[in-house]
Specification:
Length: 293
């Protein structure tokens, strides 16, 4: 089996690494904070001292970190991955970053004889734990074919979209749909409450019609339970929407729905709720409707 190096052991990366270990892959790990490293070492992983040190010991490098500058620093920075790779290796970035950054990394690694894929994911912490993530891949077909057995450990819906950067464009599209659907569910539940109708019964009815969605099913129930713990933290979701809006600006493309979401996210961030899930937007609507919770 290929030796895998995994960098970024957060809400998503740690369970993804666990699934690779359970599948029998030898995994070397690196993270900025040491606690997740120590935890995974007890489960069979091997610790690296830097991204470069990790790359020197593996065949495939996977990164899953918050933002474009983080990925650039890990790959191209001092003691970065690029300084430890060998020709014939494979790099898979599963972060959500700018498509332009993905293309920059692709070019830099191609110069070293390393194949590169951008492969952002959707499915939250539950999908990461259960190995059921949706994975959107950009890059060459041969690299995708090589990566597929690894990706199948981590996800169930795995699609090669196109060339480098295409995966990140697809993730931006995904975030638009998720954000607007969360907003719609929150608005629907608030309307139900204000009308004296049970939101739980509304959800039950809507799940049987065209309003049915994974967001209504999973996040709708979490809203009813007042469980705003993050499957994906709001501050990272806001970062993703920045990527959406920046891409739209670069294309001179009006996206009024996406622009309308940003102030709602900013209001929650101003309240110190960046560590919660965006489904906490329900509380904003309830406040606007003068509803007691």
């Amino acid at each position: 089996m290929e030796r895998i190096g995994f960098i970024g052991l957060g809400i998503m990366g740690k369970p993804m690494t666990r699934n690779l270990l359970k599948a029998g892959y030898p995994v070397i790990v690196y993270n900025r904070s040491p606690e997740p490293i120590a935890e995974l070492v007890t489960e069979g992983a091997i610790a690296a001292t830097s991204p470069q040190n990790l790359a020197e010991q593996v065949d495939v490098v996977i990164t899953c970190v918050p933002d474009s500058p983080d990925v650039e620093a890990i790959v191209l920075g001092d003691r970065g991955v690029v300084h430890g790779v060998r020709s014939g290796m494979l790099y898979i970035d599963m972060s959500t970053i700018a498509a332009a950054t993905s293309r920059k990394l692709y070019t830099a690694l191609q110069a070293k004889g390393v194949s590169a894929l951008d492969a952002p994911v959707s499915g939250g912490d539950i999908g990461a734990q259960q190995g059921t993530l949706s994975i959107m891949v950009g890059g060459e077909q041969a690299a995708f074919d090589r990566a597929l057995p690894i990706l199948q450990v981590l996800g169930k819906n795995i699609v090669r979209i196109g060339d480098a950067g295409a995966g990140q464009v697809t993730k931006a599209c995904n975030q638009i749909v998720v954000a607007l659907t969360v907003q719609a569910v929150a608005e629907a539940f608030t309307l139900a409450q204000k009308s004296g109708v049970d939101p739980a019964k509304v959800r039950e009815a809507l799940l049987g019609g065209f309003a049915q969605s994974r967001v209504m099913e999973v996040h709708g129930q979490k809203m009813l339970d007042r469980n705003f713990n993050p499957g994906f933290k709001l501050d990272l979701f806001r970062k993703d929407m920045n990527l959406v809006l920046q891409t739209a600006r670069d294309l001179s493309l009006p996206l009024p729905g996406s622009h309308a979401i940003a102030p709602l996210m900013d209001a929650l961030l101003a309240q110190g709720k960046g560590n919660l899930d965006f489904i906490a937007v329900l509380e904003l609507y309830e406040a606007l409707g003068n509803l007691q919770t």
